[in-house]
Structures are given as structure tokens and as C-alpha cells.
Amino acid sequence: MEPGSTPRTTVKRLPEKAVRDADAVSTILAAGLVAHVAVVEDDQPFVIPVAYAPYGDEILLHGSSASRAFRLLAAGAPTCVTITLLDGLVLARSAFESSMNYRSVIILGNARELTGDEKLAAAEALTEHLLPGRWAEIRPPSAQEMKATSIVSMPLAECSVKISAGGPDDVPEDLLDPVYSRVWAGVVPILEYFGSAEPDDMSGDTPEPPYLTEWSRR
Amino acid sequence: MEPGSTPRTTVKRLPEKAVRDADAVSTILAAGLVAHVAVVEDDQPFVIPVAYAPYGDEILLHGSSASRAFRLLAAGAPTCVTITLLDGLVLARSAFESSMNYRSVIILGNARELTGDEKLAAAEALTEHLLPGRWAEIRPPSAQEMKATSIVSMPLAECSVKISAGGPDDVPEDLLDPVYSRVWAGVVPILEYFGSAEPDDMSGDTPEPPYLTEWSRR
Domains of chain B, with CATH numbers? Predict the structure, then answer.
């Protein structure tokens, strides 16, 4: 069995879309902004969107110390962290073969809560993932702000990657059919970008920091 | 208690971001393309990205009949379906007040599996949500394709909405600080759009369907 793969994360459906490659994991984690994180309480799963950052062989998550989900995460409850990048719509000549191009990472495991210097370094990594270049300019968190924030870390040890890419894969009958063979088929890319920065009332005369123009993730 | 809200979905953290408004739910569901869906097996949650469609007072999800997650969903296992739209990065003068603008819907409940005519109508709704205008042109699913596809429906009865919008909300001390008051602050919008359609090998001479140019979701 390859690194990062366990029986729980082996991709059973569409195994041709499964990729076990640490580079693929780090590329997807570097490009995403939000993870969907699950915790279970009384057999009921809850999925919340969470800002994250890749951090060596781990992933960092942060939220409010008072949130139910982060109390469960900090206590080491089993969790699943999923990051999905949508790349395009795939238009085939049949409904069944139409699909989406995407890249996703699914991480299983248990988180541990960070404290002290490790937590402060993680806060910096979380800011720098979302807002690269920003940490050096802004006010670092106070002790009270750090207390109000929970930061947990999860190993990437048990994870799976799925990548769906390329054009439609129509069945031969549709490619020969007099009607359906004439239907336009292909891919419509989905692109995400950062728009023009909107300064707040006090920033009208402040020059835009150079890193703002460098942020373009895909 | 307002419609759609139960003790399980009452937003406890940042309740000022909670919105209980059926219009907000339908606007978010109309704009999203992918849901993150959780199921639990042996106390371990799994979160998978799933194509969905809003459908009256319900949400439709579809996947492979053979997938573990869809077998659990079809059996009525407790689930959570989360749709998140990222709208922007919020750059405050402190790390703690920096955040993201987003809109999210979290739906709790149990799905039911659709069959027969109801399932075929749902397949059309799923295609039309992702690819509006497409169903009339493409080959509808065969009986075998329908059998290979699981479509489940979840009521929107138990759901919560969170919307975070607007600019940074800096603490007064930072706005008066000689250094931090001079840091640029504001919002960087995150925009998603559909790029130029890429025809497959057989579609080079086929005119692009007019609905392709109409697809722009935000």
C-alpha cells in the first residue's frame, strides 16, 4: 500500500481518478482557501467551512474556541477534512457522461489542539496561506485574541486524492448517432480570481500593498 | 422558533451572521455548483463533494449507486449537506479581525432514495442546475445508466444560513495606532466565472449553443 493510503481512504469508485502522489496533495492544498470539516455529535455529522493552511506534513484549521465543532476537534474527535477545487463543466452528448472536472483531497484522522509558541506559528501560517505577505504588516494577535481562537492540526497521513480532468468521454453509440453526434460537446472551464481590491474608508490615501497585485491563485 | 430552525441548527457562534430567510437559502443554493456531504461509518465521518440541485423544498444529490456514501444516504443515514460560496478576503489591521466573506447553508436530516418517474425528473433537474438548457439537446439516460446512478432527496426543513459580508471591523486601538492605522485595509473580492468553452475533437464545426454564453452565475 502506498504512503498516505489506508483501507479507509482507498478510492473504491472510479479508481482511475485516484491519485496517490504527495505532490498532488500539496498542489491542491496550496491552491484552496476553504476546507469542509466534519465532526459527529450524537450520530449526526456536521460539516462546516473552515479556513485552513497546509503546514509541512499537517493541515492547520482554526475557528472560535467557543464553537461546538472546534471543541470536538480539540478533544480529538474523529474528523474528515475535504478540500475541493472545481475546474470545469464537462458537456457530453448524454446526461450520464456529463460531469465536472475537479481536484479533491480527503483527509481522515484526529486533530490535536495547538498551544503556546506552536499555536502562534500556526496563526502566522494560517494568515500567510490566505493573505501571503500580510503577517509582517498587521498587528499580531493579543493573548486574549489567541485564547478566543482554537487552532488544531491534523496529520496528512491518511488521505486520498481524486482528480477528474479532460474532455467528455461519450459512448460510441452517441458519437455515431445522427442527432446526438451533432450536439456541441467539450469543457467549460471554471475560473476563480481575485477582483480589484476595495479599500475601507481610512485606506483611500494608503498605497495598495504590492502583494495584493501578486495574489492570483490559479 | 423560526421556520427551518431547530436547536441543532441554531447558530451559536457569531449569531449576528445567522440569517433565517428562505430567500437567502434559495439564492445560495441557486448559485452553488457543489455540495459537501457527510456520512458516518463506524464513528468516522466522510465528507465528499457532490453535484446537487435545489428542487422545491428539497435538495437533490446524485452519485454512483455503488458508492459507499450513496448506499448510506439511500438507507437514510443521518447526513449534513453544506454549500459554501466564497465572496472575498477581508483584510483588517490585525490578524484576529482578518477573515473571509462567505455565504453558507448547512442542511441536516435524512435523505430518501428516488425511483421511477420521480428519479428521472430529478436527473433532469440535476442536469439543468449545472448545465441550464442542456437537457433538451442531449441523450437522456438509459435504464442501465439510471440504475448505475443513485439520486437522493433531502428536505430543507432543518437548515441554517450564515452570511459574512462587508469590510473589516478593526478594533478602535488599531485605528488610532500610529503604525497599524496606516496599513491598507479593505476587501479583495473572490470571483468565479466560466471561461471560454473548449470544444472536443468532433465539435470544431458545431456552433456553440447559445446557452453557453448565458452561463455566468455571479
Answer: 15-214 (2.30.110.10)
